[in-house]
Amino acid sequence: MIRRAAKLLDAGPEELDAHIGRRLSATHGAPPDWRAWLARQPMADRAASERRQASAGPVRRPRVEYRKTSGSTGAPFRFVRDREMTAWMDAAMWAVYGWHGIRPGQRHARFWGRPLQAAAARKQRIVDSALARRRLGAFDLSPAAAVRFLERLRSFRPVYAYGYPSLMSRFADHCEDAGVDASRLGLDVAISTGELLTAEARSRIASFFGCRVVNEYGCTESGILAMECEAGVSHVVPVAALPEVVDGDGRAEERGEVAVTDLYGRTGTLLRHRLYDSARSSSSQVACDCGRRLAGLEVDTGRLQSFIRLRDGSSIYGAILAYTVPTTIARFRARQVALDRIEAELVPRASVDPGRAIAECHAAWSARLGPDVRLDLRAVDEIPLTVGGKLRYFVPLEDAGRPE
C-alpha cells in the first residue's frame, strides 16, 4: 500500500486525476466529470459533517474507529473513521516521509500530547514502545523534564523528531538554559506539524537539533494533505484525501480556504469538509526541482499554540484546556491575564444549564492547573470565529493586551 501511494505521488497529473476520479466514484458516487460534480457539492462545516456522520446510521466495529480533534475551533470534533480510510492515511504518510529518508519502524522522538487518563496513558506508552518512539508529553514540559528527556534520547538515538514546533522550540529553550544541547543526537530531520511553522521556530529547531526541518500540513480527520519536499516546496498529497482551495462559494481558487474530501471508506466519509485554514495553491503542470508534478499548497493561517505561565516559573501547554474541556461545553475562549488568573467565555451546549457547564469546566481545568490559578468563567450565547473561520481558544499572557 505504501508503494502504491508513493507511485501515485511520483506519477503525472493525468494518472493522479484518474485515481481521484475512481476514488470519488467509489466513495461518493461521483460521475466521470468529477471536477464539475465536486464543485456543485455544498461546503460542509463541522456541524454539517457531524450530521452527515449521524445520518449514516449505526457503525460496525472493528471496521471503524472513533477519533477526536484537539479543538482549533474552540471545541473538539469527535468523528468516525473507516479503517480502509485510516490505512490509506498511513500509507500516504509513509510515502511522503520516504521523501526524507524516513521508513516505518525507525526510532523517533515525539513532541506531542499525552492522554490524561491513567489507563489511556498506560496504553499510549505501550503503543509508543511498539512504534519505536519516545514521547515528551505537551503537558509534562518543565526545565527538569526537558533535560531528562534529552538524556533519554541520547541513549535511544532517534532518527528523526516529530511534533508541535512551539513544543520543540520550548524544549530547546529549557535544554539550552540548563547548559545542555542536542549536538550528539544525530537527527536526520525534524517534522513540524499541528501548528503553523513560523520562520523563527524553523530556525530555532534547526539550530538546536542540527538537522533539516520540514513542514507537514494535515488534519486529524483525513491525515496528511500537504508535505514539504526535498526542494522545500509544500506539495498536495491527494492519495487518501483530496484537499481543495476554494472561495466562500466553493469555487476553486488560487487563494482561499481549505476543504477536504475523503477518497476511501464507506462509513463517516467527509465531503468538502471545511478546515477553516487560509491557503494558496499552485499548478502541477511544471515539475518541481524534486522532480514531481504535484500541485503546491501553502497554508497562510492555522493553529498557533502557546503556554500557560505559572508563578513558580513552569508552564503548561495551552492545549490542556481543549483536552479537558467537558462535553457540556460547545465552544470556549480563554485568556491568561495574570500569572494566577485565567478568564474564559463558555458556550454551553443546547439544553445544558449554564451553571452546570461552568461548574464542570471549573472543576476540570482546576484539576490540571492547580489551586494557584484563579478561573473566572462566564457563560455566553456565542463566540464568533475569526474571518478565517478559526478560534484562538487560548490567548497567552504575553498577548493578553493585544486585540484578536
Structure description:
The chain is α/β, with parallel strands linked by helices and 404 residues long. It folds into two domains: 2-102 and 188-299, Rossmann fold, CATH 3.40.50; 307-399, 2-Layer Sandwich (GMP Synthetase, Chain A, domain 3), CATH 3.30.300.30. Helices cover 32% and strands 26% of the residues. It has eleven helices and 19 strands. The chain has helices spanning 2-10, 13-28, 34-40, 46-55, 83-97, 118-130, 143-156, 165-177, 199-209, 320-324, 354-369, and strands at residues 64-68, 78-82, 108-112, 133-137, 160-163, 189-192, 212-219, 223-228, 234-236, 241-246, 255-262, 273-282, 296-299, 307-309, 315-317, 329-338, 341-348, 374-379, 394-395. Strands 4-3-5-6-7-8-9 form a seven-stranded mixed sheet, sandwiched between helices. A four-stranded antiparallel sheet has the order 10-11-12-13. Strand 7 (212-219) and strand 8 (223-228) form a beta hairpin. Helix 1 packs across helix 5. The chain starts with a helix and ends in a 9-residue tail after the last strand.
Strand arrangement across the biggest beta sheet: 4-3-5-6-7-8-9
Class per helix and strand makeup? alpha/beta
Order of helices and strands: HHHHEEHEHEHEHEHEEEEEEEEEHEEHEE
The CATH level-2 architecture of the largest domain is identified as 3-Layer(aba) Sandwich
Overall geometric form: globular
Mean pLDDT: 85
CATH topology descriptor of the largest domain:
Rossmann fold
Tally of structural domains:
2
- Give the fraction of residues assigned to helices: 25-40%
Backbone CA Rg:
21 Å
